[in-house]
Amino acid sequence: MLLRCLTALAGVTALLLPAEYPIELDGAGGVTDRVRALDGREEEVRSAVADVAGEGLRLYVAYVRDFAGLTAQTWTDATAERNQLPAEAVLLAVGTAEGAFAFSVDASSGLIPEQIDEIRRTAVGPAVERHDWAGAAIGAAIGAARGLAAVREGAPVPSLAPSTGPANPGAAPGSGGIPVVLPIAVFAAGVLVLCYLVARGARGGGRGRRRK
User: What radius of gyration, in Å, describes the C-alpha atoms of the chain?
Assistant: First the structure.
């Protein structure tokens, strides 16, 4: 009885945990926000994503609480593969609870590694550090557009100023996991107590019947 109860607990807990690896990207505007990180700036980000699409590059952005124990790069590459993104697509994934991010870029996207590193260092990284989640996506879009223009014109990799914008304290690192983990912990503790009481009652009832 106790073993069956614990097995059921494990199955239900697995269903309640957030399935963050890998995810299906939303089709609307190339932006997937699982944690409401954008907080009223959705249209601003979608506009930036649409602008870079006009340059021939499809930018996808995903905001999640965390990367399910994986490295940001492994999670981002796996999500890109699951969604079968085309060669000209770039995926930027941001884990708000971890303050981490990564790009998944195909070799034939038109962007060179030096440009991706420059975008990461000067545009996206500073925004993520400030919890400016919308600014991270906008910086990636602006940097990608400039990078593609540089490739076509044979110009050097452009230097990008850090993106600006208000921080989003509602999605600050450390806050995202509490609403999900705490109820699960309380639920699991309750089920464990119930399992113990059921098992104890079963043992007690068995001894009484044998004495008769």
Answer: 23
Q: Residue 31: pLDDT band by 50, 70, 90 thresholds?
A: very high
The CA distance from 162 to 142, in Å, is: 11
Place of tokens 């060179």: 112
118-164 pLDDT tens trace: 999 988 999 999 999 999 999 999 988 888 777 677 776 666 666 66
Cβ(142)–Cβ(50) below 8 Å: no
In the block, residue with structure tokens 């008769």: 212
- Whole-prediction pTM: 0.70
